[in-house]
Structures are given as structure tokens and as C-alpha cells.
Amino acid sequence: MDKPIVHGEWDKRLQDLKPFIESKLQEFRLLGLTHIKEKELWAFIKEKMEKEGKKQKKQEWHLYEVVGHIMSVSVNDYMNKIRLEMFQGEDLLTMTQELL
What we know:
By secondary structure, the chain is mainly α. The protein has helices at residues 14-30, 38-56, 63-72, 75-99, and strands at residues 5-6, 60-61. It has a two-stranded antiparallel sheet. It is globular and about 45 Å long. The mean pLDDT is 83.
């Protein structure tokens, strides 16, 4: 039986999760998303799970649940995050230009 992973302690289990993250990275690269690095994908997955944990008021995750989340992340999920960040950055740039 695996010990649950508590929020904020994700990186302590990274070694156990690395094969799944690498597998997901290979999938992304096959689909043309070649610039993403392991750290970026891992940060995205942690952020996504933190948000879901808050919604569900869940403080602990079992290893199989984290693996399930890793394997369910799609290129579209990641690209939506990038687009959102890009648009938010664009608004900031526009607002800054208006102030000048």
C-alpha cells in the first residue's frame, strides 16, 4: 500500500513518477510539442492537481491517482494554459502601453 502524497510534498515522490512524466513527454513530442521540458510539464501537472484538490477539499493523493492525472494530461490542456498566459500577458502589455 502506497503512502499518500500530501499537497506541497509532490517533489518528494518525483522519482516514483518520473517514468510516467517521461512517457507523457514522449507523447507530447510525437504530437509536435517538442519545446516542453520535464520541469515545465511537472509544474503544470502539480498546478492542475492543486486546483482540483482545492475544489474537492482533498489534501492527500495516492500514487495511482497522481499517475492517472499525469497520463490523462493532453496537449490541448497544456496549450490552453499557454494561450491563457499569453492573453493575460498581452493585456498587461496593452495596459502598460496605455499608461505611457
